[in-house]
Amino acid sequence: MNLKNYLKKFLVLVTVSLFAMQLWAQATIKGTVYESDGKTPVIGCSIMVKGTTRGAVTDLNGIYSIKANEGQVLEFTCIGYEAKSVTVAKQNQIDVLLAFSTRQLEGLVVTALGLTRDQKSLGYAVTKVGSEELTQVVSGNWLNGMAGKVAGLTFSGASSGPISSQRVTLRGDQSLNYGSNEALFVVDGVPIRSGTTATSSSSSYTNSGGDFPVDFGNGASDLNPEDIESVSVLKGPAATALYGSRAANGAIVITTKTGRKNKGIGVTVNSSVVVERAGYWPSFQTEYGSGSDMGLNPYNFWTLNSDLVGTSDFPARNISRYAWGEKFDANKLRYQYEGKNWETGKISMTPFVYQDDWFTGIFKNGVTYNNSFSINGSNGEGTNVRFSMADIKNEWILPNTGYKKQSYSLSFESPVNKWIKFNTKVNYYRTDSDNMPMAGYHETTVMYDLMWGYNSNSMSNWRDEYFQGRFNAINRNATISENGNSLVFAGTGSYNPYRILYEELNSTDKDRVFGSAGLTFNIAKGLTLDVKSGMDMGVEFRTQRKPKLTAVWNNGFYREETLINYEFNTDFLLKYQKEMFDNRLSLTAAFGGNNMSTKYLKNNIQLNELNLDGVYNTSNVPTGINPIPTNYRSSKIINSLYGLVSLGWKDTYYLDITGRNDWSSTLSKGNWSYFYPSVAGSVLLDKIFDFQNNAPAITFAKLRLSWANVGNDTGPYSLDQYYSAAAISGGYTLPSVIPDPMIKPENVESWELGLETKFLKNRLGLDIAVYNSTTTNQIIAVDIDPIVGASSMKINAGEINNKGIEISLNTTPVKTKDFTWIFNANWSRNINKLVSLQDGWDPTKPLETDMGTTIGGRLHVYSYIGQEMHQLYGFAMKKAPEGSFYLDASGNKVDCSGKVLLSEQTGLPSVVSTADNYLGKVNPDWRGGFNTSLRYKNLTLNMSFSYQWGGNRFSVTDGILSYQGKLTNSLNGRYDGIVAEGVNLVSTNTDGTTTCKVNNTITENIYTYYQALTLDRYNGEAHTYDTSFLKFREARLEYNIPDKLCKRTGFLQGANIAVFATNIFSIDNWPQYDPEGGMMTGTNVFNGIEAGAFPMTRTYGVNLKLSF
Amino acid sequence: MKKLKLIILCGFVLGTISSCTKNFQETNTNPNRTIVGMIQASNMFEPILYNSANQWLERTWYYNNELIQFTAHTGGITRREHLYFLEESRDWAGFWNHYANYGKNVDHMHELAVEEGDKSLEAIALTFKVLFFSNMTDMFGSVPYEEAFTGRKLGGTLTPKFNSQKEIYQFMFADLEAANTIYATNPTFQKPSMDGMYGGNMALWRKFNNSLYLRLLCRVSGRTEMNVGTKMTEILSNSTKYPIFTSNNDNATVKFSGVDPYLSNFGTTTESGFTSSGRKLTNQLIKMTVQIDQNGSQSYVDPRLPIIGKKNPTIAVNPFNIWIGTKSGCTDQERGTVDLGTSWLNYLVFCRKDAPATYMDYAEVKLIFAEAALKGLISGGTTAAKTYYEAGVRASMEKWSAQGAYCVPPVSITTANVDTYLASPLGSWDLATNKAEFLGNQKYLALFWVGMEAYHEYRRTGYPVLTIGAGTVYNDNILPTRFGYPNTTMSTNSENANAALLDMGGPNDMKTPVWWSKQAIK
């Protein structure tokens, strides 16, 4: 499809429709809408002229104005208030008092299949997040704005770059296939790709191999938050039964903005600038310099001779990337890197001092410019249109990184005739970047280089070395030759962070279109038919470049990759609504069907060596080396039919029954079809017990209960055994996975019970939900012993259970004309348990789901049958066994089981021999967030916080920096030795007890004590930290310029200026950066391990929004 | 109007239902891959030959050299194999999966070859099968043999029974006999250009098959019930029925062309990644290859050492330009000092895109006979042993001499050089007091860079006598006697695996001796 033409046509259409709008000359009615007290204005009250599509909305002072003729009826409606109608007499001022409503408390939410439902009638949990909450702070990924705002919604990222991908899950992981636990994203009724996109399937921690995931942002991050009208979070499968199996993990249903309902044209311009600064640094020690001999010999960077230094009295080379060297002292002069005169080659001494910027110096202020524009219009007769554009430019915190994004979005709705209405939405997104940096711990990442830097060298040394051309083959091998040395460390790989940022580039160029077009037929009273087609198509071109002399890729590397994703959905929905028996029974019945087809294509060409250095195209390959193509394509069809019956009795009792049948092409012939039902019911307790009269403080109370059973299919081509192609042409090897051709669909069964209450005229609201869901018949590739002929087998096996509770509280403690204070909070707890695995699995053996769950076998994230999933195991110090004691001064036995055992001779502890010590569980006990909004007249202050309790994570960054002696945790006793806390073993007694004594030995070998033992990089116990935190995520101070002032300009309708900041503080025990997140492996983010994450950033921004 | 709409609607709905599974089978047909069974046996051959040869090199470098003290990674603590830090997930499972993976592909090649009537590949598959299985059982002890690889076939098992090592050796001997019989018919290798080892020459494959037989006989020679002597004598006396290696030209050496994808494992590895940043030659190796005179200076070196090794060129740390070995198994405290000025592996010899990989060589055959003669398994006694020994060393020297061409400046080992060596205290048979130990030591040197052989042979003979460092705490200062079964095996086939452990008489660790080992026999 030619996109340009398509866009052009629509622009023409917009213009035409805007011109087509006519103007009427009618009387203008003005007035103010108050609450029943006659003082407090009602903001956002909608006023419609009955029988027309003309409408208006009250402003912050409750004032409205609307054109209407005498005799016409004005309808005033506002969520939370009783509706009111007033007939226009010969007057031009109508002030109205609205009474609080006991109905329509929460208004409408968008549920599955785009059905707009009254929230009170729902038998399952839906949480709505308004657009204002999402667009407050825009930088990086808009999904960040939702964190902490919805109970049970979990985001995890890996701090992996400018658009740090977020893994979005609801109510815990349901599937053993880690990658298929993410919630489904639906935009205007069309499911879209939301998952993480990354190259390479390896993890962000590797010892070998040189292919590392680069985070190109997840699919959902493409959306322009300015276009979002609202987000409904559908949590349980009951909410999503109708979206099909893909929504078994819950759904995030996004509605984008459409044109205005009332006549006229509006233009909004929004501009923001956000500055981003890296922070939350590790606690660096500043007292001791580079070295690995505890300062025994003076530091000396160079291999010297008398010609170079002009004296024969010079020390031997003594350099290390560790910081176990001499004490810093400005009076000590040492031969350091910076002491070399690069013109004469002479080397002189410079003061040996700590360089503040050795680690942090590479980071700069990141800036994001975001400019957007939208125009919307309506002719007042049902035709409306909205067009928006946004332009985002990001320069990230590392030099030469960042991205550019443009988005265009068009929405158009128009009646074709009396019965038929047409609507369409088209979005076009473009993202491109010359360089998305690689995160993680590996010689080709910047964070690795920083961790292994010298704390006595300024970052400017690295910068100069790179920009002055001293990164070259001679210097690279110079650590051992007589040519002189450079900062480039000729270890197993060599690097310079600036070279990585300026030459090892990862580019992306992504175009994506998604949208839908549909017709609504009003067939008869209450009977409508919706027919809709939607498409999501993305084309992405990526390159990865590495020049020669890159770690692992000694001869260079180049890869280019084209990815095409295509998803097409066509559906229809026939809907019938009727009120019966004197309006006591309300009935909604719907029947629909969907055809979904997806296609995926990936073309990848990789050069493992380059011919000419720095030239990147697929033909630049040396003789004797072949480019490696890897192509893959797949397709899949799911057809579905579904139905819904929804009954309401006297506005008090509600019952929803849904059923859906899917036919999936991925299953075997006999299993193509599978059916799944759901039932949800709710009762309004306030009606039954007449709280309005009996307990007026309780405004509303609803009890809800739902049950659902959802099926799920598998990936394409899972039924046969296929050869893997070998690098040798014509060569084949057997696959590592063998399938079960009779595989059955998966099954998720869930229950949810909820109580929703409102008190004190909606000033206080409380929603509690408990749920229990069990996934069985999982289609998983279970490990089998390779000696049977394959290493895994795709079968139906395993059971996972998730149980949890979610509580949300919404309060408005103060609400007056001038001052409003809103406070919302939520809390949730989820227990994710592994109930069973395949038949015959020995339950004493753990399940290790993925390579993303281990650090080279030194640390594991294990799941044991019958226990909560994802627990950390690793190395630890040897401890006094159970039943150990020592005798205190007065001869009493003191229990000392579990204390660290230290050698009486050396004072040194020792490490257990296998990495199977329990270190803590990954998932937190509970998490949540709270936010508050304070409004005084035109000034609003919003603040949001999130928190988590329990949960643990292993930090590679902490391990690497600690064992190198670069952090303050290795200062104690550096030169004098310490008496470590612990006990010495005296004797093992026949009764099974152990006699110990309190350690008094001075540990003199501090280097071994810290570097090899207590702070060893693989000591899981030492580098696993509690991830409890309280984060002040956002603050935003906003000023709405008074309407009077705006009006005075003659063209301005509204203006708003805001300043904001994110990540203002975080209270936690995490040693550096962000307590949240995990490690990226392929396209997944695995929690429990942090490996070379980028620093957490604080952002500061200013935003100006003008409406015309 | 209304009715018409309803009719259209109903038609639409019915149409949808009837087309619910249209094109499903076509859609779910994989366009990317070939279904198993659709290829020829020869399509399996090259990946097995070349990839396993590269794996061979990798494992030699990574594990064998470190365990058996050819090298020690003392230039840092990233690698601790020389401290016996060997883990389930990376190391045990790594070995297990390696053998199982090649085993299954060989099994499939055999299956296809039998189906097609391709006799040459049928025999080669059997030889390869024994090569992989012998290494697997030597690393782990009892493993599934009879019931291995049936899981992917109809009616197969996912919980195969383990065979004892004795049974496996008997099965392997039968397989080698079967292969030898097929080779004897001189079948045609369809595409000789594919065969990067023997160019499709069945006579050479047959020699490899029987030499491998000899290697395995030698391995179990401590078990009298295996009657090794009789078979060895038969092989020795009937070279028509059992042709074996007769020169280095017969070596089972995979020759990489150096043209992608036929690249040797370390073809693009840097010197620092390969050796200079961590893996250094050890005291043990230097001690056995360098002769020290009364003044303590290095007066004579094994001519092979300057080919496989390289002295540290940095004057600051190696001012006298001598061979310095590091201390395998050193403690953390010792690490900084023992590594200073140590010698490296010769990057120029090993890190070439066309560097060869050897499964087995001629020298080994001669040294097997030397030991057999010395022990009386074959006739000839000490005199014959000496002859065999000297021929073995000559073969080994000759093999490395060819590689010496890649040194800068090139090094070659002449006949005179070998004579000198055989007369020197390092290589003289007559000067050796303990002949068995001397032979063990010489075999150890000759097995350098040949798979895991030096490690296997150490466990069988106890030679060379290694100094186990104080830093080898990760297996309680015991050189691993075997590798443990990986978790997947223990958790999915626990009944059979535990029965095997019970039979071997120890827990699933690295301290239980394997059946043919010195420790198990005494």
Molecular structure report:
The complex is a heterodimer of chains A (1108) and B (522). In chain A, the strands form 14 sheets. Chain A has a 22-stranded antiparallel beta barrel. Chain A has 14 helices and 60 strands. Chain A is mainly beta and 1108 residues long. Chain B is mainly α and 522 residues long. Helices cover 50% and strands 5% of the residues of chain B. Chain B has 21 helices and 8 strands. The longest helix of chain B has 29 residues, at 88-116. Chain B starts with a helix and ends with a helix. The interface between A and B is large, with 100 and 95 residues.
Strand order of the largest sheet of chain B: 1-3
Number of strands of chain A: 60
The low-pLDDT segments of chain B are none
Query: Which regions of chain A are unreliable across 5 or more consecutive residues at pLDDT < 50?
Result: 10-25, 102-106, 478-484
| DSSP strand tally of chain B | 8
Summary, kept brief:
The complex is a heterodimer of chains A (1108) and B (522). Chain A has 1108 residues and is mostly beta strands.
Keywords:
heterodimer, A: 1108 residues, mainly beta, 22-stranded antiparallel β-barrel, five-stranded mixed sheet, 14 helices, 8% helix, B: 522 residues, mainly alpha, two-stranded antiparallel ribbon
